Amino acid sequence: MEQKITSLSKEKRVFHPKEPFSRRAHIKSMAQYKKMYNESIKNPEKFWAKAAEELYWFRRWKEVLKWKPPHAQWFVKGKLNMSYNCLDRHLGSWRRNKAAIIWEGENGDTATWTYQQLHSQVCKFANVLKMLGIQKGDRVCIYMPMIPEIAVAMLACARIGAVHSIIFGGFSSSALVDRINDAQAKLVVTADGAYRRGTIVKLKENVDNAMADCPTVENVVVVKRLEQEVIMHYGRDHWYDELMHSVDDVCPAEQLDSEHPLYILYTSGTTGKPKGILHTTGGYTVMTYLTTKYVFDIKEEDIYWCTADAGWVTGHSYVVYGPLLNGATTVMYEGAPNYPDPDRFWKIIDKYKINVFYTAPTAIRAFIKWGEEWPRKHKLDTLRLLGTVGEPINPEAWMWYYKVIGKGKCPIVDTWWQTETGAIMITPIPGATPTKPGTVTLPFFGIVPEVMTKEGKKCKVNEGGYLVITKPWPAMLRTIYKDDHRYQRQYWSEYPGIYFTGDGARKDKDGYFWIMGRVDDVINVSGHRIGTAEVESALVAHAKVAESAVVGRPDDLKGSAICAFVTLEGKYAPSEELKAELKEWVVKQIGALARPDEIRLTEALPKTRSGKIMRRLLREIATQGIVTGDTTTLEDFSVLETLRDEEE
Ligand code: WT7
């Protein structure tokens, strides 16, 4: 860790859950939370076994946990199926006629799918997958808009034991190529396109551009979302609708081993190559089920909306799997929060009478900027619980969310977790935990986080350090796909047997955790993780670029902005046009989410004598904003000389 972890927050306000909320909540008091937490820590296996019993198992497990650090197996030798637990389990009750998914397209299209309807579509699509030669264990890449069919594709894979790998629709075709090839996917499910802020995202075209470099893909299934002309390659491409007509809706769920892989999800790390985070079935199912129940306090009659895209882990765990496991009604929205106007979210909340709403701090900050008049136009009176995830929420944004959206009556659950953890790890329990703006508060049941010094000692109260998880948990990643060595190095080498999160944190006198952001070369842009190395390798792949270093700098809206320092090959002159060209180049290589906010063309990058780029210095320059003309002067090497010595 280069920068020192210091904490300046002086937040003193405390918000207690209101009595009417607590009275009706699953967990009603701090005393109850503490009792359950202590029991869950004293005997985690008993705690998780009890949770698992609320789900359906074809065969009961023999052992709850087998832990050979850093490899865990949960519910060993148990057999279950995620799709069965999300769907079939509810069909024997009145829930079969309950709305499973309420969907709204950006263009105003709507659809409501009951559990029975969703089940029938999932069975059909599972048969389609089988017809196209997909077998248990095969990887299926999903590159789709937020439409109900993305949930169908996920659940159909889970039903037959195929492993899905969802790639967020904002990624470019080059990003698709890398991820499809790493996973060796045999099939891609996509759509003719998606609506985004009134324009059309050409998903199918991106897939077409990727296909020449993806030798493992045999078939592409295309959902018709738009009336968009697309090229269909004979023999390879198939319309979803046509295939669905040719199969029946009976498809028994495979009885899968608890440790059978459920999905791979790529996330950025500290090298240029994204990591394929592998999640398996049993533990993930149990923990997404239980966290959804207790953190979102899900009630039978609730309408629940998590605004995340299914392309991120939040969409996996808390748009699709967690809510459906609980038999809840989950709302899916396809588009942007400010289309056609900045009150689209609030309109949706009133229209569907949403009770539980889960979104990201970056969205909240954008709403603040767009002005209070937009939410004020709407009643928002059905809301009873709010949540946030993805990055630290600044106390101002927390207060705005609490007052303007929650009208001072809704608890806020600020939930800390990661793609790797699979499920929420540190969070308030809404009917129990007093909250303070900016803290993720206390661990979920069975979770033992700690803040540690570099030397592996527990930090003192309010002393900043590394956030670690000291005990295995059911939804933890099992490995990095095809790279167990990297898994061990990345997460388990800092402290043996202890999971290293990559985040800095402190614990206050009440034991509340305050997350202070990443301590590695990963930046959190609008709640999405971008590896600086990934952007750097995209930049140096450009013919005019000699070298580059990418750092994050604080940004009011996005949390962090991407700032790229670039040195050019000798014969090229710096210009504004070239900067624009490089930004577009990165978009093409990775996707719009990685577009640098700023490119600084510089004659040299400051380095230590051993040749290491001095990122700390670059972060300072990026933050303080010293620019002259269209080149950055890093030429004052006399200053750098001294810094160089310090750095070594
Ligand atoms: C990183 C994980 C897990 C869903 C979305 C992001 C940051 C996440 C919080 C929070 C402060 C948070 C951390 C973490 N983060 N939630 N409530 N408060 N920081 O998933 O892309 O895997 O990113 O997001 O830095 O390590 P992800």
Task: Give structural notes.
This protein has 648 residues and is an alpha/beta fold. It has three domains: 270 residues, ANL, N-terminal domain (Rossmann fold, 3-Layer(aba) Sandwich), CATH 3.40.50; 172 residues, 3-Layer(aba) Sandwich (Rossmann fold); 106 residues, GMP Synthetase, Chain A, domain 3, CATH 3.30.300. It is built from 20 helices and 31 strands. The strands form eight sheets. Strands 12-11-8-6-7-14-15-23 form an eight-stranded mixed beta sheet, sandwiched between helices. The chain has a seven-stranded mixed beta sheet with strand order 5-4-17-16-18-19-20, sandwiched between helices. The chain has a four-stranded antiparallel beta sheet with strand order 21-22-24-25. The C terminus is likely disordered. The structure holds 5'-O-[(S)-butoxy(hydroxy)phosphoryl]adenosine. The site of 5'-O-[(S)-butoxy(hydroxy)phosphoryl]adenosine (WT7) has 24 residues, from helix 11, strand 20, strand 24, strand 25 and strand 27. The site of 5'-O-[(S)-butoxy(hydroxy)phosphoryl]adenosine has 24 residues, from helix 11, strand 20, strand 24, strand 25 and strand 27.
- Based on CA inertia axes, which overall geometry fits? globular
Strands of the widest sheet, in order across it, are: 12-11-8-6-7-14-15-23
Number of helical segments with 4 or more residues: 20
Classify the fold: give the CATH topology of the largest domain: Rossmann fold
Average pLDDT, rounded to a whole number, is 93
Counting structural domains, the number is 3
**The named CATH superfamily of the largest domain:** ANL, N-terminal domain
Strand runs, count: 31
Q: What Rg, in angstroms, do the CA atoms define?
A: 24 Å
Distance between the termini: 14 Å
Q: Quickly give the CATH architecture of the largest domain.
A: 3-Layer(aba) Sandwich
CATH class of the largest domain: Alpha Beta
The profile of the biggest β sheet is: 8 strands, mixed
Detail the poorly predicted runs: 627-648
Based on helices, strands and strand pairing, what is the structural class? alpha/beta
Strand percentage: 15-25%
